[in-house]
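Lab notebook page, bench 4
Experiment: in silico fold of construct C2
Operator: M.H.
Input chain length: 174 residues
Purpose: comparison with the prior construct
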Amino acid sequence: MKLRAIFLGRFHDIRHVFNDVRHAYIGFHPIKCSHGEAALSMPCEVAVKSLVPAIRALMARELTQTHRLKQEEVARLLGITQTAVSKYKGQVRGKALNIEEIKEAHTMTLDVTNLLAKGQISRPELVKKFCLVCRVVRRTGAMCELCKRSNPSLNVKLCRLCISENPACIPNDE
């Protein structure tokens, strides 16, 4: 019973668990708190649901099309399933943001993809590069509308969390 309470801590009903997972790939819906207001959605949560899949989708397409790798190999390199690679390649997943429209992020992602295809990047370095691409995209304001969809009460014109020079997720000593 305690495990169920921990698991359902954020969800008042098991159906919300399945809806949340389904919407992570399809879109967003605001989660309501017990008092009726929309729950706080962190920019990193939005990035995990939209930006990370968009980056993976671009990488999966590049690895399968440009580098001619099989989906199984791409799945191993990206740490995802072959089914996920297929969905990214077919643009079923990872279409909330178009990384190709953000020149700097697109170039960075292609550079990382080339290193990955050649086996010239370690897992920790890959994670760092993912974070750098995320920062670039967030700095452009491209995620603002996705944050707004996730939290309709958010005033994106006043929110500067992602766009500021020192976003909250970046330590000052970097």
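Observations: The first helix runs from residue 2 to 7. Residues 42-150 form one domain.
Next step: discuss at group meeting.
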